[in-house]
User: Which sequence fits this backbone?
């Protein structure tokens, strides 16, 4: 795509693209968000199909807007990379979690595998890295109807190079199309391979982003045999302390009861926390493991508890009453009533798969704490981490306010709204808030000036976390927000998991 040579006409086109991108983000935020909320209400089959079609189409438009804006930045050489510390395990797990709902009813599994050698903290542009991985996973999901998609990460300590691979069992692509990975909208001719729809802007942009990071994106594929997208970039490890609780877990032993090929992927989560893992195929072997080894916990993969699970709970309590291991169920899917069934079977926790390392860390930290007697579930851990909080939403668009209000109140938070900067400042003087969600473009006092005035207030009000929730995606937005005292910039349309995660990190730490 050629946007010109820097002439006034070309610059007008770029300015127009940025303006249209901003104007499109506002309604798309409402369409995507409200469609998601609608899909969480009782609907008949036809209504659900219609709502899903609206949401999917709107999500596609948002992706096209994002890609178009990135193309303009790449053409101008104005796409800057921001190097900062990030947790690579959390990044890849959250990226995969965000895309899993797209699987729908397909017989398809999306897994994450992070090598134990990968450091806890790396330095790089986490946002652009997430964009590349999202594009690669979305491409794999588009062309894979059944089987498995795996996002894996490996690490070479000698060169400080991280290798990311997204592999799938999909339809594959011909050699001619693989060679054109850097060119947008390349078309093929032979369905049902990738050639039927081309590679699109997302993969072309990913190719250029990886190049900007000093790497090279390559595709290994054959028609009918799946595809593996691979790239290696240098990401220096940080010297920051490991996440809270990891050091206390290091060196402990856990027993994993799992007889399928998923055992290695689950064990990787424990290895990442510094735990030793003994994998056994059945509950009888788990009982022997507990008798012979000083296990801190037993994790059993099962859909529902059986008499054998209850017998294991009784035996470990009788034989090792003083130092009995905690028992945790890992369920492939969660259903109402299952947690209570596992508690009655004598287990101490119930987590749903795929389980993130962060969730495992929090669960073990709770279960192994002395003097605590609490049944742990994924939902209960999330409740403890995520509030409730009092939040101020500042936005002049009533639909966006309503969307944020529903999303946040559904999580149990209290929401106060303000339609402009002046009203927001009044609210700040009247109430104590845990965080402020700030639109940038508003009549009267805009979001940047409102934030500057908040920062000028006496503490603790002046230190309240401020998140910019904006449709603006221009390169100069982030520096301007940082200069005004805004902590995090989130671009519309807002993904609920991203929003809640950002709030949790700012408020809780």
Assistant:
């Amino acid at each position: 795509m050629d946007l010109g040579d820097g002439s006034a006409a070309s610059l007008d086109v770029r300015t127009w693209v940025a303006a249209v991108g901003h104007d499109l983000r506002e309604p798309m935020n409402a369409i995507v968000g409200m469609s998601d909320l609608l899909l969480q209400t009782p609907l008949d089959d036809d209504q659900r199909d219609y709502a899903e079609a609206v949401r999917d189409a709107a999500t596609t438009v948002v992706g096209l807007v994002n890609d178009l804006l990135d193309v303009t930045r790449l053409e101008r050489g104005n796409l800057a990379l921001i190097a900062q510390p990030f947790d690579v395990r959390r990044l890849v797990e959250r990226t995969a979690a965000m895309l899993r709902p797209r699987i729908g009813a397909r017989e398809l599994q999306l897994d994450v595998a992070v090598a134990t050698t990968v450091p806890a903290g790396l330095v790089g542009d986490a946002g652009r890295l997430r964009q590349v991985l999202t594009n690669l996973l979305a491409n794999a999901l588009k062309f894979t109807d059944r089987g498995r998609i795996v996002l894996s990460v490996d690490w070479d300590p000698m060169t400080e190079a991280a290798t990311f691979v997204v592999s799938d069992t999909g339809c594959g692509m011909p050699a001619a199309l693989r060679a054109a990975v850097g060119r947008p909208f390349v078309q093929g001719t032979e369905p049902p391979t990738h050639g039927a729809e081309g590679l699109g802007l997302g993969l072309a942009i990913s190719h250029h982003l990886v190049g900007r990071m000093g790497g090279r994106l390559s595709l290994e594929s054959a028609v009918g045999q799946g595809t593996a997208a691979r790239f290696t970039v240098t990401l220096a490890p940080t010297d920051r302390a490991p996440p809270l609780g990891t050091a206390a877990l290091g060196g402990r032993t856990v027993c994993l009861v799992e007889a399928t090929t998923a055992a290695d992927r689950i064990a990787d989560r424990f290895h990442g926390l510094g735990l030793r893992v003994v994998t056994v195929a059945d509950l009888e072997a788990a009982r022997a493991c507990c008798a012979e080894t000083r296990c801190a916990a037993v994790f059993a993969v099962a859909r529902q508890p059986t008499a054998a699970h209850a017998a294991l709970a009784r035996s470990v309590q009788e034989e090792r009453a003083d130092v009995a291991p905690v028992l945790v169920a890992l369920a492939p899917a969660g259903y109402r009533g299952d947690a209570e069934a596992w508690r009655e079977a004598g287990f101490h926790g119930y987590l749903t798969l795929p389980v993130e390392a962060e969730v495992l860390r929090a669960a073990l930290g709770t279960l192994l704490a002395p003097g605590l007697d609490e049944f742990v579930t994924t939902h209960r851990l999330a409740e403890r981490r995520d509030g409730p909080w009092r939040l101020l939403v500042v936005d002049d668009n009533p639909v966006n306010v309503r969307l944020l209000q529903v999303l946040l109140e559904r999580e149990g938070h209290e929401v106060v709204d303000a339609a402009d900067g002046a009203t927001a400042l009044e609210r700040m003087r009247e109430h104590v808030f845990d965080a402020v969600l700030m639109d940038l473009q508003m009549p009267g006092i805009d979001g940047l000036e409102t934030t500057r005035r908040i920062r000028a207030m006496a503490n603790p009000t002046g230190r309240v976390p401020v998140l910019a929730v904006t449709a603006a995606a221009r390169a100069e937005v982030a520096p301007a927000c940082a200069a005004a005292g805004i902590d995090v910039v989130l671009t519309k349309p807002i993904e609920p998991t991203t929003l809640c995660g950002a709030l949790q990190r700012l408020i809780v730490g």
Notes: The first helix runs from residue 8 to 39.
